[in-house]
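Working notes for the structural subgroup meeting. M.R. asked for a predicted model of this chain before we commit to crystallization trials. I am recording the input and output together here so anyone reviewing the notebook later can reproduce the run.

Input as submitted:
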Amino acid sequence: MADTLPSEFDVIVIGTGLPESIIAAACSRSGQRVLHVDSRSYYGGNWASFSFSGILSWLKEYQENSDVVNESPAWQEQILENEEAIVLSRKDKTIQHVEVFCYASQDLHEDVEEAGALQKNHASVISGSPTEAAHSAYLPSEDESLCTVSCEMPTEQTPSSDLEPALEINDVEVTGEKEKRYDDKTCVKSASEEETSENVPTAEDTALPPKKNRITYSQIIKEGRRFNIDLVSKLLYSRGLLIDLLIKSNVSRYAEFKNITRILVFREGRVEQVPCSRADVFNSKQLTMVEKRMLMKFLTFCMEYEKHPDEYKAYEEITFSEYLKTQKLTPNLRYFVLHSIAMTSETACNTVDGLKATKNFLRCLGRYGNTPFLFPLYGQGELPQCFCRMCAVFGGIYCLRHSVQCLVVDKESRKCKAIIDQFGQRIISKHFLVEDSYFSENTCSHVQYRQISRSVLITDRSVLKMDSDQQISILTVPGEEPGTFAVRVIELCPSTMTCMKGTYLVHLTCTSSKTAREDLEPVVQKLFTPYTETEIENEEVEKPRLLWALYFNMRDSSDVSRNSYNDLPSNVYVCSGPDCGLGNDNAVKQVVSHLPTHTDEQTGL
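Returned structure, recorded in token form:
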């Protein structure tokens, strides 16, 4: 591929995360010649989504910590006397402390592979420490074949449809093309079922009822392509910057979305639903009539708080939690407002930030549903691919599995003038955008990174059972001790096209204070119980059963100043990875700051 690449571009973008993909699309649409490269074999970087076997292959890549491509030793010879090189890293060090546990029945057979698999790949996952939980963890051996995630162009990863410029919101269960592929390949016999079939001629002849909710590890693998597991867990505010960008740029035609159906709160050991809209407030049985009036009065003030500075100016220096106490709200209301509307913790923000967060929540209500949030079908990883598709449509060139050895800098002007890729090809450009993870330790020696603790769970039912099993929920679990971070829980049902039927995909996120498992396992234990055979027989299990769990820490580079990097040329722009926030505003703000000359109607920025 390198032999056919043009030798000169207007913009070279390294990394296919969300901000890089938006910038690439904007530049391509405005007529710039764009080269978009990524050393990974998939789109999205740390914004990506994977099938179940794809996530196992991703884990194996970090376990081995090996290079995908071979370095061309000849690139140093291309650096002239009046030039110097900024060497880029070929190893991604943004993921740490990875631990995987499997609690589902492990009746895996050698001939079980993922339905719809395009190719086989021997995959293994990283085990946790040898605790009791780790003893139940399943580690696939080399004899068991699992498929890697498909790495086609974005045009083949999202179902095609002729959508209107406005967002396509689905309120009913979706059965798209990806769902239809495996209708005849979804059942795998468990060990106990096979044992029964040996003694009885057919299943129809037996009088014994089948076990309920019997989900095995082989079923998860067999239907692995129904899973779309996000590395980063986020939602879209219905009036947020990214929604506006999707509509204005017409990229929304490439994606579909579902409403988040309910907002939950964890209080006194129970999960409860929080009333959001005016109708929900007055229909709620959790609040007294006096509390309903108090809540509506306070929320009405929050919508216009800037017009009444005398009401909050004296409290600007205290926390939002302390301010709520001055508003004569009951403990019940203070808890709802703090953790489920402002979505902050006791000490995380001051009064003004809390009022801003509450207003942002309220102004997003009602645009597409009863909650302020939307979720993209097939996962968050669809969004970078949508913008990559637009870039390609307008002539952008894409190269995955294509690493860059170095940036070439002119010593006199201190401007970057070219890159040298893995094949030793020198490619000239005017502007360069680089995702933070590509910089070497020499460039980032003065950078202080924060960390995000992440967990992904597969469970057998929702944390709060209701009449409908197609609920998409967000839950905030406050920190147990003062100063600890709240944990955000997002629970996805099968209609989001992110998990197989009969399961839920649960994402947990918080700012790291320790390893991901140490930060998040206490919350997992509060909400779920490990899947065991003895509990299968008991239909009245209080908590959802945990089938599979993944923990990892992800680097948060969102608050890193450009000045923290060593000797970056002025025409090299840095894009950060995902932040810990719920929305995507930080990614869009990066785009606006990097593209001041492209903020016109044509690009939609």
